[in-house]
Structure formats: structure tokens, C-alpha cells
Structure prediction request, 371 residues.
Amino acid sequence: MSSFSSSPLTIVHAVFSSRIAGAERHAMDLAAAQAERGHRVHLVGPWRSDLRAGLSPQVTYHGLMSPLWRAARLRALVHELQADIVHGHLGPACKSVARCEGAARLGTLHVGYKAHQHGRLDGVICVNNAQKTSTRTFQGEVRVIHNWPPKPTARTTRPGAPRNIREELGLSHHRLLVGCVARLHPSKGVDVLINAFLSDASLDATLVIVGEGREARSLKRLAAYDSRIRFLGFRDDVDEILTSLDLLVSPSREEALPLAVLEGMRAGLPIVATRTDSALQLLSDETATLVALNDPIEMGAALRAALRTMTTQHGTRILPPWRVRYDLSRYDRTFAIDQVDALYRDLLLRRVPGHLPSDQLDLASGMADEW
Prediction:
């Protein structure tokens, strides 16, 4: 019989989102990595959800037909699977996870700690250092485990399809390309970026906004259908898009630890970001430009200054490379997943002293019957 520290676990992730953004991509990548390590991994979400199509084939998806009674349905599934771990992502899922019995229950703070959503869990994962101060009243285990850039996904290119985003949009190689990857939600500050770009960006620059959300219509109106601003919606080729950019902008009003910024750092992009707690953690020691929150004037000035360094005196784009080398050692995917695994096993031992994973419980029961 293998040791507890290396035995496969039965893990259930709960993500009650129909669309994919940063938190969902994090959960999907974590589930895929755990399945690759030999764990039995399940993900619970809405019946109609983009997560189903994007999930690793090694992870079993369970679709809920309706949001009604989803906590009860999740609890029944956890019991049926004899799960060792049930792990919630985003507040509504964490609230339902707290009602599950028999498994160790934890949640990742993709946004922030809220007692009514996370207070009854056995453990929480803070994705940045600043979050830990908000969990002072929490009685369970608290660990800081930084987000990481998800493993790049291989994209199948059809014969004759555009080779990159510039070709897809019909942009000249000499045109500056600014990008923002974000859920179109007020907290992401995309409206601030649009105002700044309209006011201060060169006529020879294009802004691409990757993501979808409830603000899409109002943001398009704000952009006044300016041909320099392109809304790409949800894309599954973010890494490829990043390689074509000249500048990445993160205009968030609040942010836990944005995957888009981590992926931009991995791509070596110059970055302009607002001074959220996460940006201060990620970029304060790096060669990035940090600006005030909710300030289109300061952001516009930063855009103008950054783009000026990328053009000649005659306004022609300087062809790359001008890539930046960032220190991503603290955000290593393998190390972070090791930390998650260790937290799981610590929670199991604390919740039920002497706990064995579900497969070992079956084996132990059989051995007891023989005796």
C-alpha cells in the first residue's frame, strides 16, 4: 500500500460559471495538473458552460441543469464519489462547498475573503500576500499560494487561417498593438483604459480587448465604434495573441492576482498596470509602469510615454524584440501545485486524524475483514 503523502486523492472542484475568465482558467488548469499526477479529478459546473469544452479529457465534468438546490446536488455528488477534497472557486461555489460533509472543504480567494461565503470552510487559499490580512477572523487553515501562468494550450490552426492576430485583423507590421485581457466587468476598469486610449494613444496604434462580460455593450458604446479599438470576445489563444502585442495594459480597479499579467510577464511584454495590491506584488520590483486606480489621465500619459519609446522620430514602429525579462520564480506552476497538494493532505489529517484517501479506506476495510 502506498504512503498517504503520495496516494491518489478523489478531488471535486466546484466552479459555478458559464463563461471562462481568469478564475475559471485557474481552476481548469489546476484540475488538469492534478489529473496528470494521477488524482481522480472532477469538476462541477452549469450544464451549459464553456468550461466543459475547454476541460482536460482526464477531468470528469458534472453539469448541473439548474442553479436551484445546487448545494444539495454538490453535497450528494461528493458523497457518491467518496471525495477526499471538495474545492470551491469564486464565492457562490465556496458557499455550497461549505455545506458538503465527509470531505475536506476549501476555497481559493480569486476575489477576496467574505465570511458568509468562506467562513465555514476548513481552509482557504490566498493568491496574494495582501489577502491574508482579511482572513483574521477565519478559524480554518490559511495558506498563501500564488497564482501561476496556466500551461499554454495547443491551438489547431486550419489551413489558410491567419497566422497571428495582426494578420487576422488586417494590421500592418508597423502598427503599434496594445492589448487588455479581462472580464468585461466594472471591477476590471476597461472603461478607464478606453477613455485613456481615445485621449492619448497615437493614431497609429490599435487596442485589442480580449474577454466578454456584462459590460460589453456599454464599453462598445464608450469606444464610439472607433476603428482603432477592437473587441475580440472570448479567445482560447491568449498566449498567441500576447506574442503579437507591443504593450499589455491591466486597468483593474481591484484584482487578486491576474493571470493575464502573469502570462504577459511570461511573454516578456512591457506592462502598464494600475496599483492594485496584486500589481504591486507582481510588478513593483520590475520594469513596469504603475498608475493610479480609476485615473484615465495618468493612464493616458503612461500609454503615450510607453508607445513613444516604441517608435522612431518619424513615427514608424520599431520592430521587436524589445522584450522584458521578468522574475517569475515565485509563480512556478509545479511548485504551486505541490503546495496545493500539501494543503489538501494537511486538511485531511486535521479534519479526520489518521484519515486515509478513499482508495486506501477501501483497502484498509478489506484488510480488517480478513482479520
